[in-house]
Predict the 3D structure of the following.
Amino acid sequence: MSAPAPRPVDLWSIVRDEAAALAAREPMLADFLHANVLTRPGLGASLATLLAGKLAGDVLRGDSLRALIDEAIAADPGIAEAAEADLRALRERDPACKSYVTGLLFFKGYQALQSYRISHWLWGQGREGFAFMLNNRISERFGVDIHPAARIGRGILLDHGTGFVVGETAVIDDHVSLLHEVTLGGTGKESGDRHPKIRRGVLVSAGAKILGNIVVGEGAKVGAGSVVLHDVPAHCTVAGVPARVVGRCQTSDPASQMDHRLDDPG
């Protein structure tokens, strides 16, 4: 595993420097980089421009969407703070992400997660219709379906993102890593609190299905393709259909280690 990336104090300055270098190397991208990064005063403003361009369509117009995202970020500074923490997580944990600007502009799992944060803000404002409209557009554009009411912390890596589904009452704590085709779903038509709770430090591998109002304990690991129907003890690895405990995690932080092997050599 490659060494973690440095944690710059002023992340936006690093992103701008990377964008300038990329524009010099790839002149055909220069206009795109100027519009989305080099003329933006910070990460929040960059996201407003970038996500509005990604999500705009016949109903949701680009200028209106950018104004909405600007409004959400101004009203809730935690949105931009979470976006920065997520970008750091992406750069540090995904060896395919060679720079912060690449993750920001070209990794759709990251973009889908930040788009969800806007729909969640709308939901909290009582604007459920608009939240569902945006959720639908996120699903169409990114192949990611996160209910606007779900609660997701910061420092989240959503790797690839395609096929990622999260139900209404799901909770994902800070500092979690999840891969594509993961489902945090219910088990039927029950109402109320019915979706999983994922605790800090958890790694959920590709294709895992975690169903019902159950808890995946802190620092646990869920193997690829597993179907989890019961609580997962903290710092344990589960795998299989249905999932069962196959061992103890040798690290307290599987989310950072990103080691998907079940033997977990540490």
Q: What stands out?
A: DSSP finds nine helices and 15 strands in the chain.
